[in-house]
Specification:
The complex is a heterodimer of chains A (560) and B (103). Chain A is of the alpha+beta class. Chain A contains 22 helices and eleven strands. In chain A, strands 1, 2, 3, 4 and 6 form a five-stranded antiparallel sheet that branches. In chain A, strands 5-10-9-7 form a four-stranded mixed sheet, covered by helices on one side. Chain A has a two-stranded antiparallel sheet with strand order 8-11. The radius of gyration of chain A is 29 Å and the shape is globular. The N terminus of chain A is likely disordered. In chain B, helix 1 runs antiparallel to helix 3, helix 1 crosses helix 4 and helix 4 packs antiparallel against helix 5. The radius of gyration of chain B is 17 Å and the shape is elongated. The chains are: A alpha+beta (560), B mainly alpha (103). At the A-B interface, helix 14, helix 19, helix 20, helix 21 and helix 22 of A face helix 1, helix 2, helix 3, helix 4 and helix 5 of B.
């Protein structure tokens, strides 16, 4: 990639130049002057030029650590970007993933006067009119927000989460810079295309926008509370929607001991094993039963109350999975956990994740060597995080692009396992994970309601197609006769779009063939006579074949 | 559409097919046998049998809706529709035959 970045093409906007120079300066300070220099003349602050001219010797600090420091220094957007990349071992090397997992999200608090200003601007009334008391010393301060204890006028103890001042402007500017950079990379540095930098920045932008909208966070808290109504061992603080806005979140105050503070937990005399088992069960249920899970389950967001219930905090970063993806993911994970290599490869092929250049025999053999080893091992001795890393490494080596949601799920389970080992060293995660996932897999395969919904949807789609097909075909034929039919061809290099277009084209052809044979059959059978009747029945048979093919295509979706 | 008589009818038919022909095949898969203990498989089997039988029975009165829909769709297709209907009927009779129930 060296030398490939065209300086002139970097599209910095005038209003971003100051920030770009700041970024370049931070890069130069941490030994990345060559990268800073390639950000274009606009980014050449004095520090950058000096650093380039000085041509420093190679830094003794490992490059991964320097990258982490750069991100920490650049602030919230880059810290969050680093945290997202820490969940993508398919995109960044494992050593960097490990380093990024250590990203510190602690920053000095901002003054209470600014807290008051933001709260009053958001709630539209003086702070004293809503809260009888607000502790000016924050309980916690992070890159997105800080948290204060308070008491509502009604006497209810609450916490207020207040977004950092000017965060929105800062993030918006940073995202613009990142989008520009991604666009240039994708257009001018072909090596980066397989990693789809533009798509990554788009995905990251959406995730960050959600995380900085506290109304969305309150909605996630409500959803989680409803999901786990039947789970008395879990406590999610209730958001006070009346006093929650985009930048201010007011919620019930729930106190507890940090889950990794084992001494304090022992002092509470709670059963550590049951806490860990519950934590893992909640993680698995949220992913595989509800498809909505806490995507940032680090120990700082887990607390335990005196009665042993788990308190889960911070619902800014959530993962969602479509029901169909849950089925695919379950099948994949069950195959991995039961050591069924053929099923693993079939799942990867079905999900269209294996590249054309992948040597299937070699992939099978590498996966087998890992899966057999783990299948033979005592379940209790298996470290899930290491196991996931090994499977990921094989996939990465064989150019299998694992989907982001699967990686996020892997990361959530591995994080929960890490917490489990810290709290209760004898924790055996696979003892719980394997039977749980297999049971959910079986239950979903045999869910009559789910299957009937798919059938009903296909029937409705088929009916709608049948209803519209004659009209559409007549309109198409009329246009053809008049010479008005125009075909727009556009080259789309996006693989997903290409598959979608192919599927649509296939369906159109099938619909056309179905209609032709169907109407042909009607006309022939109507005319009578042995030959015409036989031809009519043959034509009818073909029409039904095409109709079934069309229904099949609709049920299977794109790219099949 | 969920909750309509048609949906309940389809669910009932689907539950019967799953109970009579798919349940044991799924529970017999190697990955399931490797992932669950025999006791767990037995527990899940009884629970699923009960659930599927419940879905099957609760939607049985609504199966007529599915038949009516098929009649309407296939009827519109003329003689070919009648042939497909006969084929479907024969398939269904085989699927819901006592041999299927016994499994």
């Amino acid at each position: 990639m060296s030398g490939a970045l065209d300086l002139v093409l970097l599209p910095w906007r005038l209003r971003d130049i100051r920030r770009v120079r700041g970024i370049a300066g931070v890069l130069a300070r941490h030994g990345f002057a060559d990268v800073a220099a390639r950000m274009g003349p606009a980014a050449w602050a004095r520090g950058v030029i000096r650093a380039v001219l000085r041509r420093p010797k190679a830094s003794p600090v490992p490059v991964e650590r320097r990258i982490r420091r750069v991100l920490e220094e650049l602030g919230p957007t880059f810290i969050k970007l680093g945290q997202m990349l820490a969940t993508r071992p398919d995109l960044v090397p494992m050593a960097l993933v490990d380093e990024l997992s250590r990203l510190q999200d602690h920053v000095p608090p901002f003054p209470f006067d600014e807290v008051r200003q933001i709260v009053e601007a958001e709630l539209g009334q003086p702070m004293d009119a809503v809260y009888s008391e607000v502790d000016p010393v924050p309980v916690a301060a992070a890159s997105i927000a800080q948290v204060h204890y308070a008491t509502l006028k009604t006497g209810e103890p609450v916490v207020i989460k207040v977004q950092r001042p000017s965060l929105h402007q800062q993030i918006t500017g940073d995202l613009r810079i990142l989008a520009g950079l991604a666009s240039v990379l994708e257009s001018h540095v072909p090596e980066t295309r397989p990693f789809r930098p533009r798509a990554i920045v788009e995905e990251f932008t959406k995730s960050l926008q959600r995380e900085t909208d506290f109304l969305a966070e309150a909605a996630s808290m409500e959803r989680y509370r409803k999901m786990f109504e039947d789970e008395p061992g879990l406590c999610i603080p209730k958001p006070c929607l009346e006093w929650t806005r985009r930048r201010v979140l007011t919620m019930e105050r729930v106190e507890g001991v940090k889950v990794t503070d084992v001494e304090a937990l022992k002092a509470l005399d709670v059963d550590l094993k049951s806490i860990v088992d519950l934590g893992m069960r909640l993680t698995l249920r949220s992913i595989f039963e509800f498809g909505f899970f806490h995507a940032d389950p680090h120990p700082g967001n887990f607390f335990v109350r005196r009665d042993g219930t788990i308190v889960l905090l911070d619902f800014g970063m959530m993962g969602t999975i479509e029901p169909r993806r849950i089925d695919e993911m379950l099948a994949f994970m069950v195959a991995v956990l039961t050591g069924d290599v053929d099923m693993v490869v079939d799942q990867l092929l079905d999900a269209d994740l294996i590249g054309d250049d992948t040597d299937l025999r070699s992939l099978r053999s590498d996966l087998k060597s890992i899966l057999v080893r783990y299948a033979d091992a005592n379940l209790g001795s298996v470290n899930v995080a290491v196991f996931i890393q090994e499977v990921m490494a094989v996939n990465v080596r064989h150019h299998v692009l694992l989907p982001a949601d699967l990686l996020l799920v892997g990361k959530s389970i591995a994080t929960m396992e890490g917490i489990g080992h810290q709290v209760y060293p004898e924790f055996k995660p696979l003892d719980a994970i394997r039977p749980y996932l297999t049971e959910v897999y079986v239950r979903r395969l045999l869910d009559a309601k789910k299957h009937s919904q798919v059938v009903a949807r296909s029937v409705m789609d088929g009916l709608s197609l049948l209803k519209d097909a004659p009209f559409d075909i007549r309109r198409l034929l009329r246009k053809m006769r008049r010479g008005e039919l125009t075909v727009n061809l556009r080259s789309v290099d996006d693989e997903a779009r290409r598959r979608h277009s192919t599927a649509v084209a296939n369906r159109a052809v099938l619909a056309g063939l179905f209609a032709t044979f169907f109407f042909g059959a009607v006309v022939l059978l109507d005319q009578g006579g042995t030959v015409r009747t036989v031809a009519g029945w043959v034509s009818a048979g073909f029409s039904w074949l095409f109709f079934l093919g069309l229904l099949w295509s609709l049920v299977r979706g794109d790219g099949r | 559409m969920p909750g309509t008589p048609l949906a309940r009818g389809i669910e009932s038919i689907m539950a019967e097919v799953l109970r009579a022909h798919v349940l044991d095949t799924v529970l017999d898969r190697p990955e399931v046998r490797r992932g669950l203990s025999p006791e767990a498989i037995q527990r899940i089997r009884s629970d699923l049998l009960e659930r599927l039988a419940k879905s099957e029975e609760s939607g049985r009165p609504d199966r007529g809706e599915v038949e009516a829909l098929l009649d309407a769709v296939l009827g519109a297709a003329g003689p070919a529709g009648a042939a497909v209907k006969a084929l479907l009927k024969s398939c269904w009779e085989r699927v819901s035959s006592p041999e299927g129930e016994k499994r």
